[in-house]
Amino acid sequence: MKLTEKQLNILNHIVEDGQAWADNAKEAHVIAKVAKYESAYDEAVAKGNYQTRKQRDDAEEQAEQERYNNVSYDVKRSREYPYVGEQLDYIYHNGIEKWKADMILPVKEKYPKGAN
């Protein structure tokens, strides 16, 4: 369906790719969705610093990634260590000293105590 610029902007306000959504929807559904969300779109634009749905989703994803990365060294270490069962199996087959050298020390060196 051929959309006007405003229709496309309204759809991009509520879905990540308005044109792709419209291309896969019935014309009546497109018109209904545009009518339903037009006032919300106009209100968001009037507030200033407008972002499309994709821009908002990307910003949220980036913030989530930053929250994931900005944790203390002990959390980073715990994420990096292999599963306990895998570690125990490694100890059984290779011994504690090899386990320390191969599985534990590299993680401790990568994330030293007290580092963020």
Could you please describe the fold and organization of this structure?
- The protein is mainly alpha-helical.
- It folds into two domains: 5-63, no CATH class; 71-110, no CATH class.
- It has helices spanning 5-14, 18-23, 27-47, 53-69, 73-80, 84-94, 96-110.
- Helix 1 packs across helix 3 (27-47) and helix 6 (84-94) packs across helix 7.
Quick tags:
116 residues, mainly alpha
Distance between the termini: 51 Å
Total strands? 0
**Averaging pLDDT over every residue, what do you get?**
94
The computed structural class is mainly alpha
* Number of domains as seen in the coordinates: 2
N-to-C SSE series?
A: HHHHHHH
Largest sheet data: none
Uncertain residue ranges: none
Cα Rg = 25 Å
In which range does the helix fraction lie? Answer: over 70%
Task: Characterize this entry briefly.
It is built from 7 helices and no strands. By secondary structure, the chain is mainly alpha-helical.
Q: Helices and strands in order, then pairings?
A:
Blueprint: H1 5-14, H2 18-23, H3 27-47, H4 53-69, H5 73-80, H6 84-94, H7 96-110
